[in-house]
Amino acid sequence: MKSLREYLSWAEEKCVAIGHFNISDSEGFKAVTETAHELNLPVIIGVSEGEREFIGLAEAVAMVKTIQNNNQPVFLNADHTYSIEKAKIAIDAGVDCIIIDAAEKSLEENTKLTKEIVDYAKSKNPKILVEGEIGFIGKSSNLLESLPEGVSVETQTDPKEALQFIKNTGIDLLAPSVGNVHGIVKTGNPKLNIERIKAIKDIVGIPLVLHGGSGITDDNFKKAIKAGIRIIHINTELRVAYKEGIREGLKSREVAPYKFLAEGVEEMKEVVKERLKLFNNL
Ligand SMILES: [Zn+2]
């Protein structure tokens, strides 16, 4: 099986983006991996600090390793990790990639923390990919009434600053702030700054990751991929679909979890399928 780094080169060549979907439990895992298998596509499973506490970090690693042993390209990402302690625990547990999120800190502090974790990660596992983030995009994976405070054009990532940040930290992947926002904003779809994506891509030379993909229009996604986005994160949409599916499932008198949860899995599979097809030009 190819490594995640090799799949990213594959995505670059084909001008597609690898889907990244967050899960909290085995139902989410089932929905994402089964859909990726049906479409014969690589996929990344994300677990944030809260999500990995719920599913269990060792359990998530074991589930992904089992599927990798069957030669299915599924990779595990320790999504938004805020502290050195939590980062070290995830790296030691055997994740394939990790995101250090210190974007809310000063550039100096962000650089210092990110570099420290890159050094630790590479000393433990030379194959692990580390993602850094500059420019603020909000923190919630929820339904939002309006744009979160602190998110604006002024906080979008500066291409030159991004290059310096990469040089100073040694990260493998960059999550820029380009008009994207975490969560789904009720007042309308966030609009991506395609020019900014292109400008960053032209200067940095490492794969770009788009966070806060939920709620962005298909057309905007296509343009972003063309401009250089190689991984796209979807979380909130999946959560909404799961909850609605379970609500349907609970309407029957069924008490077997694998029956009343099945509707939730199906709803999630629909979202994953639609997104994967869009991101991979299918
Ligand atoms: Zn994110």
TrEMBL record:
Top-level division of the source organism's lineage: Bacteria
Name of the protein: Tagatose-bisphosphate aldolase
A Gene Ontology molecular function term of the record: zinc ion binding
Cofactor note: Binds 2 Zn(2+) ions per subunit. One is catalytic and the other provides a structural contribution.
Active site: D79
Cofactor(s) in the UniProt record: Zn(2+)
InterPro entries given in the database record: Aldolase_TIM, Class_II_FBP_aldolase, FBA_II
Natural source organism: Candidatus Zambryskibacteria bacterium RIFCSPLOWO2_02_FULL_39_14
Family annotation (Pfam families): F_bP_aldolase
Keywords: Metal-binding, Zinc
Binding site for Zn(2+) 2: D101, E133
Gene3D superfamilies documented for this protein: Aldolase class I
Positions contributing to Zn(2+) 1 binding: H80, H182, H211
Taxonomic lineage from the root: Bacteria, Candidatus Zambryskiibacteriota
One biological process term in Gene Ontology: carbohydrate metabolic process
